[in-house]
């Protein structure tokens, strides 16, 4: 066996070992970077969920305040304080709606879209002119 063959084998083994170490290191570095990105995304998601929860609490507080302000006692007191002269409606002035308001409004807004007979459009006519010169 020649000394050059042994050196070539050792050099080749050394190169392959260095390549494997670099490859393993890059995989490790990629894994650490990926875990860091997952952590950043999780923190952003947590912050967004906290903001959503805070907004929902704020909306619930506002809905409570609106409900309190729309009560009959508060409205009557405001009417007296501000001298508006408003009175409760009489029963003949009240119209009771039996079905769903959303369905009724949707049906009214989309009546022409779902009509049994569509609006008659003027037919298209083509005329051929024989004015060749």
Question: What's this model, at a glance?
Answer:
This protein is mainly alpha-helical and about 130 residues long. The protein has helices spanning about 5-70, 70-80, 100-110.
Description:
The protein contains three helices and no strands. With about 130 residues, the protein is mainly α. The chain has one domain (about 5-110). The protein is flat, with a radius of gyration of 40 Å. The termini are far apart.
Low-confidence stretches: none
> What helical percentage do the residues reach?
55-70%
Give the number of DSSP strands: 0
The helix/strand series, from N terminus to C terminus, equals HHH
Number of helices: 3
Strand coverage percent: under 5%
The largest pleated sheet is described as:
none
**Span from first to last CA?**
100 Å
Using only CA atoms, what is the Rg? Answer: 40 Å
Mean pLDDT across every amino acid position: 87
Overall domain count: 1
Shape: flat
Structural class: mainly alpha
Topology:
Elements: H1 3-69, H2 72-81, H3 101-109
Keywords:
133 residues, mainly alpha
């Amino acid at each position: 066996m020649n000394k050059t063959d042994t050196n070539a084998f050792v050099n080749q083994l050394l190169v392959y070992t260095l390549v494997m170490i670099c490859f393993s290191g890059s995989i490790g570095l990629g894994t650490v970077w990926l875990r860091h990105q997952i952590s950043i995304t999780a923190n952003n998601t947590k912050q967004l969920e906290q903001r959503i929860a805070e907004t929902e609490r704020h909306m619930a507080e506002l809905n409570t305040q609106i409900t309190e302000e729309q009560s009959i006692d508060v409205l009557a007191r405001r009417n007296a304080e501000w001298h508006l002269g408003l009175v409760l409606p009489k029963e003949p002035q009240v119209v009771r709606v039996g079905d769903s308001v959303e369905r009724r409004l949707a049906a009214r807004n989309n009546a022409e879209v779902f009509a049994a007979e569509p609006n008659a459009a003027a037919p298209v006519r083509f005329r051929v002119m024989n004015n060749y010169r």
